[in-house]
């Protein structure tokens, strides 16, 4: 027993995580447009493979709601048969990034871009799953999903089966929300699992005309990618999707790791090793033709709050998922699809960072605008390009702030005009600098003091040289320049 001092705590925590994972694994798979069992396979790999590896000891990996939109887009464009190749190469890319030590650099990504990504994903999930809850086909684009909602509700009102389906979905959300208000003893059963069980019982008891999960059997859905799928790699379009899978899955996993570290006092995450663990898991998921995995904050926080002490809890949760998928596949066929849609609507709602948006707006309006722009871009364009737009805006904002410059002009009416430049002189602020300098009287000598500059880039240096030549060309005394004190950062400016 001394070899496993926390076996009891880890065993009990593994049961809780398993119960949380089952409805989410199945729901994410169905929402991604693939067989339900593929979600369970990814959960099993997340437990048995990634769970055994070093990195973050208490976070749990599996299929994530955050990748649902991206997977659905990939399956729609390339087909389920090619999904394995995409996930396989995304995993190999993660392994490479882990071995090259790139994992820790993900911590440098702007929080507003990450929150914006989650917000955009949440909006698309909610809009798409409302159609699934009503048993209707959702439009393909994010904007189409949102714009089509009024029409979808109108269609649902005229259909008994759609109304029954919507009632199951709405009831599932209500149970999940109200479950948290029940006594702690009752809450040992996860709300999502209770909601699915109640929805299943209601559907069977009242013989409701509601779609249920299609079951193909665990071995029946495992499809290692074939030669035709590997042939898709010749298409440049698929590489954009592979890179998107790798980057977004990595960012989600490593941000989850940082969040989980704040929940416990145990060993801290080793980011590069966690990246390698995620890459190994995704490589295997790709070989099995399953969904991509990330670390999932819902399961991870459930693991910590249930008292887990070591990685044994997440490995055991993978064992329970394997036993469930092998021994009770018939149970999946009883689950109503709108109940899974309800779970994902609730998960999507939790991805929208309402508090963070209001807090950012009060303290950093620029960051709040980047968050909103990232979310809107994901809804309007797609996941990958939306995140790239957010990252680009974040870089531009940082560069703009880093190029803060102050120009002070002192004119005593007689003698030379004194101009003092301080801060960072970069090309972004060049128009402002030149406008001020060119407005100085042409017939007066000028003393330009650059000692206050921390940085003077090549574009500014060249522009100041040209201005000094022009100002001196009319017969006025040459512009007298006092050089910056940091020789490594700035080059000499001359009036020549």
Mean pLDDT over the residues: 87
Spans where pLDDT lies below 50 across 5 or more residues:
487-491
Helical content band: 55-70%
Shape: elongated
End-to-end separation in angstroms reads 83 Å
Helical run tally? 22
Strand content: 5-15%
Number of strands: 6
Strand order of the largest sheet: 3-4-5-6
Q: What gyration radius follows from the Cα positions, in whole Å?
A: 29 Å
| SS content category | alpha/beta
Encode the helix/strand succession as letters.
HHEHHHHHHHHHHHEHHHHHHHEEHEHE
The biggest sheet, with number of strands, parallel, antiparallel or mixed sense and barrel status, is: 4 strands, mixed
Protein model, in words:
- With 496 residues, this protein is of the alpha/beta class.
- The protein contains 22 helices and six strands.
- The chain has a four-stranded mixed beta sheet with strand order 3-4-5-6, with helices on one face. Strands 1-2 form a two-stranded antiparallel ribbon.
- α4 packs across α12 (236-261).
- It starts with 6 loop residues before the first helix and ends in a 14-residue tail after the last strand.
């Amino acid at each position: 027993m001394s070899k496993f001092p926390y076996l009891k705590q880890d065993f009990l925590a593994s049961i809780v995580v398993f119960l949380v994972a089952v409805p989410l694994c199945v729901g994410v798979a169905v929402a991604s447009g693939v067989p339900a069992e593929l979600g369970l396979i990814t959960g099993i790999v997340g437990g048995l493979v990634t769970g055994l590896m070093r990195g973050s000891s208490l976070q749990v990996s599996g299929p994530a709601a955050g990748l649902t939109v991206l997977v659905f887009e990939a399956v729609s464009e390339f087909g389920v048969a090619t999904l394995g190749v995409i996930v396989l190469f995304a995993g190999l890319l993660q392994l490479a990034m882990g071995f090259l030590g790139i994992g820790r650099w993900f911590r440098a990504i702007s929080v507003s871009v990450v929150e914006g990504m989650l917000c955009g994903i949440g909006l698309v999930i909610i809009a798409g799953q409302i159609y699934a809850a009503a048993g209707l086909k959702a439009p393909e684009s994010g904007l189409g999903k949102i714009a089509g909602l009024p029409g979808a509700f109108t269609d649902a009102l005229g259909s008994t089966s759609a109304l029954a389906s919507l009632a199951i979905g709405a009831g599932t959300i209500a149970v999940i929300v109200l479950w948290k208000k029940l006594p702690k003893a009752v809450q040992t059963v996860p709300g999502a699992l209770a909601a699915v069980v109640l929805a299943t019982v209601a559907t069977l008891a009242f013989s409701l005309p509601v779609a249920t999960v299609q079951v193909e059997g665990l071995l029946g859905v495992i499809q290692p990618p074939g030669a035709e799928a590997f042939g898709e790699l010749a298409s440049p379009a698929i590489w954009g999707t592979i890179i998107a899978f790798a980057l977004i899955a990595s960012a989600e996993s490593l941000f989850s790791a940082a969040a989980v570290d704040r929940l416990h006092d145990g060993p801290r995450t080793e980011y590069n090793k966690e990246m390698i663990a995620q890459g190994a898991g995704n490589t295997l998921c790709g070989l099995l033709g399953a969904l991509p995995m990330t670390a999932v904050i819902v399961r991870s926080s459930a693991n910590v709050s249930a008292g887990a002490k070591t990685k044994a809890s997440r490995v055991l949760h993978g064992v329970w998922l394997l036993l469930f998928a092998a021994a009770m596949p018939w149970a999946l066929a009883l689950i109503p699809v709108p109940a899974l849609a309800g779970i994902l609507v609730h998960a999507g709602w939790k991805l929208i960072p309402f508090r963070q948006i209001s807090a950012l707006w009060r303290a950093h309006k620029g960051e709040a605008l980047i968050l909103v722009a990232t979310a809107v871009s994901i809804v309007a364009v797609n996941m990958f390009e939306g995140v790239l737009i957010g990252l680009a805006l974040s870089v531009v904002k940082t560069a703009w702030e880093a190029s803060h410059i102050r120009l002070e002009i002192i004119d005593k009416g007689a003698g030379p005009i004194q101009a003092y430049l301080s801060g960072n002189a970069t090309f972004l602020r060049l128009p402002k600098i030149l406008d001020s300098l060119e407005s100085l009287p042409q017939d007066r000598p000028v003393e330009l003091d650059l000692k206050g500059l921390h940085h003077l880039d090549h574009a500014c240096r060249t522009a100041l040289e040209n201005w000094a030549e022009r100002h001196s060309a009319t017969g006025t005394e040459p512009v007298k320049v006092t050089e910056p004190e940091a020789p490594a950062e700035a080059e000499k400016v001359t009036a020549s």
